[in-house]
Design a protein that fits this description.
The protein is of the alpha/beta class. The protein is built from twelve helices and seven strands. Helix 5 packs parallel to helix 6 and helix 9 runs parallel beside helix 11. The longest helix has 32 residues.
Amino acid sequence: MVLNNSQYDEIMREYNAKQTRTRHELDRKTAEVLIAVPQYKSLSDKISQLSVEAAKASIRGEDALPKLNSRICAIKGQMEEQLLSAGFPADYLTPVYECPVCRDTGYVGGEKCHCFIQASIDLLYRQSNIRQVLDKENFDNFSLDFYSTEYKDATTGLSPRENAARVLLKCREFTENFPSGENILFFGDTGVGKTFLSNCIAKELLDKAHSVLYLSSIELFQSFSAYSDNESESTQTQIIECELLIIDDLGTELSNSFTNSKLFYCINSRLLGGKSTIISTNLSLEELMHNYSERIFSRISSSYRLLKLFGDDIRLIKK
């Protein structure tokens, strides 16, 4: 799990907010008890005094420690009795934490608590841009049945189903070896499962608390052309720094010198940073080479695993 500074700070702000809410609720309950049980404060002060004495005795290794601890336990018993007599539960002034394991700090013994890891996953899902679709588009729901076995591709000698099975295996290897700096280009006709498989990979990695950002090619270039504000700057930072960037439907944008320069910057920066990228496109390799600069095509063809999908349009089959 790798969080950038802003992601980590966002999670820790929520933990700080939880702790603040807990303190405020405890203060409210304490004020309520002190009105109903005036003598409760003097007993609480006595506990504090004896606790200090017990700590000092422990440091000095004195024999008085067991006796002090016994007195503290006795006073705590009196305090519980007074709470019960006033109609309060015995644990009324015990802080209530959303996560009792880490007491809403996010850490246990210097290690991230399970709730911190879950909070990270939730945050990464929110920022991925594809949370809703992943409920349906994941490895569990990917079916080879939509790919024909009735003909073979002239180049590969594989049927659409055999080829899709090979691509599926490569996708699973990608997630198992992640992070590896590996990149994927999915290419092929419309509706053959390129975006679906990208989303399968995204869900697998998000569930393991890896940062994933999904953008259509149009959204990618809009992010780079947006006016400078906190939101656009944050997105641009994510584009370069997230562990996996998915660029969907490359080639649907209006291609010009600006989009070419930003695409090269994005691809090259992530390659230099060892960050993985998945690109899907309906364009053939020849069309990619023609539509984009030689530098872009060179980076993709030399640094990406090229996975072609072919077959009938699955969306039409489902209808």
